[in-house]
Amino acid sequence: MRIGEVASAAGVSTRALRYYEQQQLIASSRSTGGQRLYTPDTVERVRWIQLLYAAGLSSRTIVEFLPCVHTGIAGPEMIARLRAERDRLDDHMRDLAATRARLDSVLAAAEFGASRPAGEAAGV
């Protein structure tokens, strides 16, 4: 399959496919004219890559995890790695919630100041 065919079938851009290849997430061969050629199973692999990216995994983690997708078996190390990724996301979500709470405080103060009469806002 040519790059445009894979991109269309998988719902990604050709640029994404070139990036995935650069990150060693997919592989291609070359035609005599130098065009990238992919096997039909690349479409499903790209769909998995998209799912794993959407789950917050880095390309490095995805490279390590993709063999588990194909075998259906994740060893203890990979399960531990996925749990660590989930914990990292939990930490990030807590940080974002705290940041949002601070923004809510700033917004409340701004709204309170905007609702006061002009002289009162200036401390007059």
Automatic annotation (TrEMBL):
InterPro entries, alphabetized: DNA-bd_dom_put_sf (IPR009061), MerR-type_HTH_dom (IPR000551), MerR_fam (IPR047057)
SUPFAM superfamilies: Putative DNA-binding domain (SSF46955)
Gene3D superfamilies cross-referenced by the UniProt entry: 1.10.1660.10
Residue intervals of the HTH merR-type domain: 1-68
Keywords in alphabetical order: DNA-binding
Pfam families named in the record: MerR_1 (PF13411)
Protein name: MerR family transcriptional regulator
Organism in which the protein naturally occurs: Streptomyces phaeochromogenes
